[in-house]
Amino acid sequence: MKSYILPLSDPQADLETAGGKGASLSRLARAGLPVPGGFHVTTQAYRHFVSANHLQAGILAALETADASRPATLEEASRAIRRLFAGASIPNELASTIVEAYGSLPGANPPVAVRSSATAEDLPEASFAGQQETYLNISGADGMLDAVKNCWASLWTGRAISYRLRQNIPPESVALAVVVQLLVDAEAAGILFTANPLNARRDELVINAAWGLGEAVVGGAVTPDTITVRKADGKVVGRQTAEKQVMTARTASGTAEQPVPDSLKSVPVLSDEKAAELCRLGVQIEGLYGTPMDIEWALRDGEFTILQARPVTALPEAPIEWVRPNPKGVFMRGSVVDLMPDPLSPLFLTLGIPTFLRQMRPLGKRMIGAEPDLGEYYLTHINTYAYMSSSFPLKGWLWVLFRQLPAYPRLLRQLVPLWRDEMHPEYQAFVLGLKDKHPAEMETAELWRASQQILDAAMYYVCALMFATMGASAGAEILTTRAYDKFAKQEGDPPASVLLMGWDNIPARSEKSLYDLAVWAAQDEGLKAHLLNTPAETLAAQLESPDSAPTPSFPEFATRFQAHLEQFGHIIFQLDIAADLPLDHPEPMLENIKMYLHGEGSNPHERQQANKQRRIQTGEAALSRLKGWRRWAFNKALRAGQAMAEVRDDALAEIGLGYPALRAMLLELGRRFAATGAIQQADDIFWLEKAEIDALLDGDRTSRQAQVAERKEYWKRLKRETPPPMIPVRKRVMGVKTDIFVAHSQDGQAADVIKGVPTSGGKVTAPACVLHGPEDFDQMRLGDVLVAGATTPAWTPLFAMASAVVTDIGGPLSHGSIVAREYGIPAVMGTNVATRRIADRQTITVDGDAGTVLLGNGRS
Questions:
Q1: Domain ranges of the chain
Q2: What local confidence, expressed as pLDDT, does residue 731 receive?
Q3: Beta partners for residue 212, in sequence order
Q4: How far apart are CA 455 and CA 459, in angstroms?
Q5: 743 band by pLDDT with thresholds 50, 70 and 90
Q6: How many angstroms separate the CA atoms of 106 and 110, rounded?
Q7: Which of 121, 208, 215, 691 fits a disulfide with 248 by CB distance 3.0 to 4.6 angstroms?
């Protein structure tokens, strides 16, 4: 026999059988929650009623003219269908089965609530409460059967038809179940959200409460009390007691709105103790479903009952709170953090940062003579964004004061030779030793062990740069600038930055390599035409299989381009090992070649020589004006600044020497994990934590696919956030002004003007090209303003196309500022909000002297 009736807690009461509301009530009842007793009239009963009365053809005919954009057509279709239902009768055997279930409820003709439960409602992805009808205080078999039939007909209300049209739900696929439950003659009732719908806080829940049955609250007929409760301990943290005017009460023939007695109008419906009790029920229900819930509840004789629970679908994103890991610390987005503009991957958070902190100790001992103890938060993260701490433990301050500072005069003399003759060659030799390692041939455990060894070497090298080039370069440039401005500069002279430009460093050689490749390709008209007329993405694909040559000389072009990638393809976009390398995204380099083939852009050989000549001439002119101790002081400052400037970008560009091998090994390990089902694809390995990889290698076969998917979504959410440049904001740290090291706060940024740090002079009005990473590089056009979170040496090819540069983080000593000055284009750094406030292709005006970006309304 077909199942027309199911007990309320029956496990068969799923979405298809009992509808969304019924399935939820069944789940709550089986979990032991206080749900009023009752039964389900299943969707099979509805289908039998429609079939026995031959209604389906009439329903579909009435819906033919229904248009969600024309409400009158929806109501017309609804009236036609409801007339069909009104004229139909419930088959005898079905009516008898329903009446028998009603008779099994306790009491004679017990009052019940008859609730519609559709198969297309109360779903996490498509929730729309109140589409169908509910009938309260129904007594007797005849009244109950009429209410069931009216619920079936309410499947075709105008609002329900409109909802399903918008959701693209086929009308022939829907059916309606009905839940019949004992009526709770509630003294009070209301709604409970297990997350705060106003501020999206998941650690708070909000209760609406009113006297009488819950219909007045659900229907909006009364302004209820609002109580905000902290989930962790049930403490009431907010309360608004309303002047409640009406309530829904039972009558002889159903329910009606009645005035609230004067003695109750201003009285809180729930005490703090009762609110805490309801909170515990809400937390239990949320735990059962694993998502914030919208719950209808009732209170009778001091006991709560749950009438309904559905997932919350319209909850805004929870606000991100930027809580310091050390409540007494000051955390900044500067220094090495310039290489980490985006949220960090789980693998880099749990492997990369701990490796960096561990390598600081032997590196510090090697350079200073004693291991530093700068604290566990020296490089840390807040909401997965990297931050540097300027607050050290006592041992750290002692190391700085009595070890590092006294050693600095010696270090300033030795840093460049130390990097050039020791640190860099050591790293190069280590990477060279990896040439014979082929990931596909390595044992799984060896892949993981070798990956960690490469990361050890890379982070040791980064720590060396913190001593040898990053901080020292900043100090030397400041010293050179002050000495020049104070002793030598005269009216009409170029700025001090000219003294530090024109070096033949790795980024410059990379650009010249592309230019030379374009000059070579231009000699072959067929090759030139193919390169110019083929999208960069297509060219990149053709380079993967150059044997199927589109032109006779294309294989030679591919060979030359591959040589370029082998020499420069390791220059990182970001420090995070999860980020792709130029090797993975050759499109911007191909666009550079096409630009040169078009005859656009400047000759990088000539530009570098011009900058070099300017540097020499400016330095010689300054020295010629000075004598005595002033000449001596300026010459010492100039030599220090130029020595650091010469190697600064080389040092940064070589961070990624080991990254191609490291990423190849991790991706091979990821492929093996994917083959076991632990993750879905190879690059999902970057979304695992170190401990999880260790566990997988130890034989754990737990699938991490759901966790990886959640982490990717959370990363996307965080990517939309604007991390504060400093927490908390300080104008000075250790006596040094912070505005040259960290970005401007988004607070106080005007509606049409973004403020930042002026780092390269000039003024340009042009379309913005907002780039979030190498995946966007092909969007860059000649003359665009390059807008990015930050830039590293790998971004240098884009500067040849840019008319100006704007970044979220960085200062006058950051890579982007230095390169912008080399190219003679305006730059504004450290805006903190540029990539979020500036729309792609929006016309903006960059003033590199004032440090402002004016937002225009035009789009190119």
A1: 1-183, 184-319, 331-490+656-719, 732-859
A2: 67
A3: 248
A4: 6
A5: low
A6: 7
A7: 215
313-323 residue pLDDT tens: 766 766 788 99
Q: Which residue has the tokens 């740090």?
A: 757
User: What mean pLDDT comes out for the span 134-141?
Assistant: 90
SS3 422: helix
Tell me the C-alpha distance between 659 and 97, whole Å.
71
Q: Which two tokens stand for residue 269?
A: 């419906």
Do the beta carbons of residue 720 and residue 836 sit within 8 Å?
Answer: yes
Domain 184-319: CATH architecture, name and number where available: 2-Layer Sandwich (3.30)
Contact 622, 500 (CB under 8 A): no
d(CA 680, CA 696): 14
Q: What pLDDT, on the 0 to 100 scale, is given for residue 130?
A: 47
Ranking 180-184, 304-308, 398-402, 776-780 by mean pLDDT, the lowest is 776-780
Average pLDDT, the chain: 88
Judge whether 270 and 209 are in contact, CB under 8 Å. Answer: yes
Domain 1-183 and domain 184-319 have a common topology: no
Mean pLDDT value across residues 387-400: 88
Superfamily in which the 1-183 domain is placed by CATH: ATP-grasp fold, A domain (3.30.1490.20)
Work out the end-to-end distance of the chain between its first and last CA atoms, rounded to an integer number of angstroms.
Answer: 69
The answer to whether the beta carbons of residues 322 and 728 sit under 8 Å apart is no
Burial of residue 28 (CB within 10 Å: 0-12, 13-18, 19+) is buried
CB 837 within 8 A of CB 754: yes
724: phi then psi, degrees, rounded to nearest 5: -60, 140
Residue range 159-172: mean pLDDT, rounded: 84
Angle, alpha carbons 627-628-629 (nearest 5°)? 120
Helix (H, G, I), strand (E, B) or coil at 240: strand
Contact present, 800 and 511 (Cβ < 8 Å): yes
Q: Cβ atoms within 10 A of the Cβ of 59, count?
A: 18
Helices (H) and strands (E) in the chain, counts: 29, 27
Residue among 45, 4, 6, 46 nearest 29 (CA): 6
Is residue 782 within 8 A of residue 588, CB to CB? The reply is no
Q: Which CATH class is domain 732-859?
A: alpha beta
Q: 800: Cβ–Cβ under 8 A, 6 or more apart, which residues?
A: 511, 592, 595, 601, 602, 604, 823
Model confidence, pTM: 0.68
Taking only the tens place, the pLDDT of each residue in 400-415 is: 888 888 887 777 777 7
Rounded to the nearest 10 degrees, the angle between the axes of helix 554-568 and helix 536-544 is 90
Closest C-alpha among 288, 294, 317, 283 to residue 122:
294
Tokens linked to 272: 């703090």
Residue located via tokens 């000055």: 821
CB atoms within 10 A of CB 644: 27
The two structure tokens encoding residue 385 = 């964004």
